[in-house]
Amino acid sequence: MIKTNMIGALIVALSLFMVAQVSVSAESKAGMVKMDDAMAAKVADAIAKAEAARKKAASVDGEWRDTGKFIKNAQKAADAGEYDKALKLAKRAEDEGRLGYEQAVSQSELKIPSYLKY
Amino acid sequence: MKKILISLAVLALTATSVQAGPEEDRMAFINYYKGKFPSVPDNEYANGVYAIDPVGRENWEAIEEFPPYEPFIDAGQEMWEKPFANGKGYKDCFPKGPAIAHLYPHWDKEQKMVMTLPLALNHCREANGEKPLKYKKGSINNILSYIAFQSRGNRVDVKVPQDDPGAVAAYEDGKKFYFTRRGQLNFSCANCHLQNTGLKVRTEILSPTVGHVTHWPVYRSKWGTVGTLHRRFTGCNKNIRAKPMKAQGEQYRNLEYFLSYMSNGQELNGPGARK
Hints:
The structure holds two protein chains of two kinds. Chain A is an all-alpha fold. Chain A has a domain at about 35-105. Chain A is about 80% helix and about 0% strand. Chain B is globular.
């Protein structure tokens, strides 16, 4: 999923780049803006996925401490145009959301540890 | 991290499903600690970690000579006695007061929920047109300190009416919370306060669960003030990098219900002082 996204973004970026290359300089600027737009869309998508994963973990009381903070910081980085940083943070938050959810549902049945003797 | 995960995987394999009621649970806890700390008398557990840490205990006894929570008791007495804007007061809501700490938490049949003392205090305020107090920090700790002090000598006496499925479910829910591993560090309350009680985490020795609820609010040197039990839950959840639940939300109230039952018979000795 993430891989295909990245390949997709690369193709978009490359084709934009080529378009920019053959255009006159005024248009090359427009190309750069478009490239930025593609990146911004990718980051927005990553953040949305992270937020969904966080919510899913929270729905089973499995949210981890810093997941929300990572998402906030990803958004801040995105707003500042630091897309790589934003992607990394969003990815981390999405991973945490998934792990927190799995952690909680894997324990849906109460198990008493064997060191406690009845 | 890997090591922890492996040892927890082993633990999961050796865990069993046990169908046990509150009293069986409590006895299992008591016997477990007895095995671990054979020389600690039953009634000592109300002193928390100082029941099992002789060095820390000396410092603590020195602190208790000039209790840092005293000003909060006085401020709480003022709150207790001062009427609300409508002329009524806490006394009208709690005619048995101020020594009422041992009556909480309890299963509230009408509202079908675990009623804790802080929640009951805020219900009283709201019924009288006052703003509710915050549940972790601030002046709720004053009135709780006063009530705790007045309630000293009473014993924890939590009941889980077995003929009320709601009460049983709330207790079971709290028990499940207690044994559920959470957060990035994948720890449950039990991992620290049962399995590893007596071991050191950073500079602190892990206290037993029995005795955890007897002495709130607590003046913590680290906080520089008194704080509530649910503030402590929040701290313990954060330490293992889990997102804490809402103070006085259902999860923490049910946890308090279970935790308090484990301390049944222990003497109330709040407010307390801790590191």
